[in-house]
Amino acid sequence: MNRPASIDAAAPTDAEIDQFIARNSVLDNEWDASNTCCLCLESFNVSGEPCHRMTVAGCSHHFGRDCLFKLFKIEPMEEKKCPLCRTVWQAPLWLNRPTLQEIIFENETLAAQVPVANPPPSPRTSTGSAPAGNRITLESDPNDNYATRLENYRRNAREPDRFVFRAERRANERNQLQGLDRRRADRALRPAYRPTEASNDGAGTNERANTSNNGGVLEGLYFNAFSRGENTNQQRDSSTETNAPATDLLATLVNEGSQLPRTEQTPFRPHAPESTGPSVVQSLGESLGRSQYLQHFPLTARALEETQNSPRQPEGTSNRRRADGQGPIDIAANLRARRAEFDRLSARYDDAAREHAARIREGDLLARSLALDRRQHELDNRERQLNAREMELVSREAQATARFTERSTRLQNSQHSLIARLEDVETEIQDIQTALRNSPPN
Asked: Which residues contact 94 (CB under 8 A, 6 or more apart)?
């Protein structure tokens, strides 16, 4: 549907309203003057104003000229539509106004299209400097040259969808450059700080350093401090930047490492099953004492002592003595006793479960029995009510039968009396006729 052209002025004049009415309506003289205007609901013969029929697509209603003037004068920025069919005559003027984002984008596009006679030279170019290779350039860099800024403007004009995500893209590029610079600095500093005594058997750079000598220990301590961002030189400020090795820290670590006590590491030997040597508790008791060891490690000491005193035995027997001293412990008998205890507990649990299920079943049956009793009681009450109703109906039937019998008796008696009376009347008539026949004529 094509809408009519809207009035351009915020406060339209009478001439503009006349032009709008002339374009979108016609004067209808054939319309009945007794009909009313769709706006003021007054008949045209009373108001005396001419009748205009709208020619907008979808609307053909009739309005008075003065009413149309008042409609367009009030709130000119809002849309105008027919009050009956709701057809839009004039769209709201604020729809034609550009948004702030459109204005900014248009200004940037126009600024990018303006030619510059003498573009400013790039401050990064300097004579006599060696080429630094392909350098990554950010859009948000203020020191960029004119050609780069012009290319950025043109790219934004070609890709308007990326206008919203520009700040996020700049932040990502900046983070990538900063991370690349940090990695380069780490690679440059790492060979200078690596001690010559340290050795690494692996070929990869991410493998752990060999700590078999003082060099590996120093390397691990140093790189732990370096990874935490700690100051490795106590005599300089942490804000200063230098690539010199921290000789003071290395000397301190060497001195401290040489003063650390060294303990001989005893190689691990598995426990022999048939060994008859001293127990583990006795060997540990030489340094800690049996009471102190049992106080600090009760569970471990007991387990080790039992393991030491009970090597593997054939036929399910053991060298351990019972508490009553009656002989060695029979492992098979112990297992059978535990199995019997487990079966007994399982049976008890099964009995308890069955008892619980039986109680639940009994409760369900009791509830059903109570429900059946309530139902039976209701049926008994219903039966008593039906019996009372039946007795009432029988009584009413007996009363009706008695009334019918009484009425029948009354009717029979009335019939007999009428018959007797008719007989008397007939007898009288016969007597009169006989008397008339016997009487002499006058």
From this structure: 77
Q: How many helices (H) and strands (E) would you count in the chain?
A: 12, 7
Calpha distance 290→168 (Å, rounded):
68
Question: What is the rounded distance in angstroms from the CA atom of residue 136 to the CA atom of residue 170?
Answer: 12
Q: 49: closest CA among 59, 38, 57?
A: 38
Three-state secondary structure call for residue 4? coil
CA dihedral over 275, 278, 283, 289, signed as positive or negative:
positive
Neighbours of 131 (CB within 10 A): 6
Distance CA 78, CA 91 (A): 7
pLDDT tens-digit map of 99-134 = 566 667 767 776 666 554 455 555 444 444 444 444
Give the pLDDT confidence of 248-285 residue by residue, as tens digits.
544 554 455 545 455 444 444 444 444 444 444 444 44
What secondary structure does DSSP assign to 220-280, as a single string?
A: HHHHHHHHTT--S-TTS-TT----S--HHHHHHHHHHHHHS---PPPPP-PPPTT--S--H
The full set of domains in the chain, from first to last, is 14-96 (3.30.40.10), 278-315 (no CATH)
Cα torsion through 157, 158, 163, 169, rounded to 10: -120
What is the rounded distance in angstroms from the CA atom of residue 331 to the CA atom of residue 306?
A: 14
In what side-by-side order are the strands of the sheet with 25-27?
Answer: 25-27, 51-54, 62-64
Cα(75)–Cα(77) distance, integer angstroms: 6
pLDDT digits (tens, 9 = 90+) for 351-385: 777 888 888 888 889 999 999 999 999 999 999 99
